[in-house]
């Protein structure tokens, strides 16, 4: 499995508390912050929950 680069592109203001908690778990706390995360089912599930707030790019190694 590879890695995923996830970037917060939309503010979580006025979105449900569980989506904000998911962003905190992904360590995406500020706009335009990027994180490289392992590509596994748990991370994919968290990203799917907030996919309308983030931009996802698969990193090829």
TrEMBL record:
SUPFAM superfamilies per UniProt: Ribosomal protein L30p/L7e
Gene Ontology MF term list: structural constituent of ribosome
Pfam families: Ribosomal_L30 (PF00327)
GO CC annotations on file: cytosolic large ribosomal subunit
Biological process (GO), any one: translation
HAMAP family: Ribosomal_uL30_B
Family note: Belongs to the universal ribosomal protein uL30 family.
Record's subunit section: Part of the 50S ribosomal subunit.
Protein's recorded name: Large ribosomal subunit protein uL30
Source organism: Oceanithermus profundus (strain DSM 14977 / NBRC 100410 / VKM B-2274 / 506)
């Amino acid at each position: 499995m590879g890695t995923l680069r996830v970037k917060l592109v939309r503010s979580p203001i006025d979105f449900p508390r569980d989506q904000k908690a998911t962003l905190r778990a992904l360590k995406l706390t500020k706009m335009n912050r990027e994180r490289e995360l392992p590509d596994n089912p748990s991370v994919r599930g968290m990203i799917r929950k907030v996919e309308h707030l983030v931009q996802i790019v698969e990193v090829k190694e």
